[in-house]
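Thread: "does anyone have the structure for this chain?"

Original post by V.I.:
We have the sequence but no experimental structure in hand. Need at least a predicted one for the grant figures.
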Amino acid sequence: MSDGMNRVVLLGNLGADPELRYAGSGTAVLNFRMATNESFLDRNRELTERTEWHSVVVFGPRAEGLARVLVKGSCVLVEGTLRTSSYEKDGQKRYKTEVHARDICLAGPSPAALRRDADDEVGPMEMPLPSEEPASPPEPAPPARPARKRNGAPPRKAEMLDEIPF
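Reply from O.Q.:
Generated one for you, tokens below.
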């Protein structure tokens, strides 16, 4: 019997600030929820959007570093594996499925940086004053090179484009 493959790749945004904890052994554990969005046309040809929520766990020194960088709204690319565990609550057995992340890449500007940019005051744009000297005319474009003949073969796309006047 062949081995299976358990691999997950997600691109989405954090739904809340991540939570950093430490296990009894001292290992850092970072938990966060992320949302992925999918757009598609339904049977009635109407654009429908679906959001899925995922629980992601990161372990070790990387968890501590990411805890300082990630905030609600951060766009991240997560690669890892699915892990399902069970627990009992109120006498009922429950299950939870998490993504145990191996690699995480920041996939966009941080929301904090975006907020800072939006808060910056934007003053009037300064336009340069026209100079006293007349502007020099632009240099003419080099002439198009003629298409090469290829011993009776039909011309290539690039050769045909050279012959089209614009």
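V.I.: this helps a lot. Residues 8-112 form a domain with the OB fold (Dihydrolipoamide Acetyltransferase, E2P) fold (CATH 2.40.50.140).
O.Q.: and The mean pLDDT is 81.
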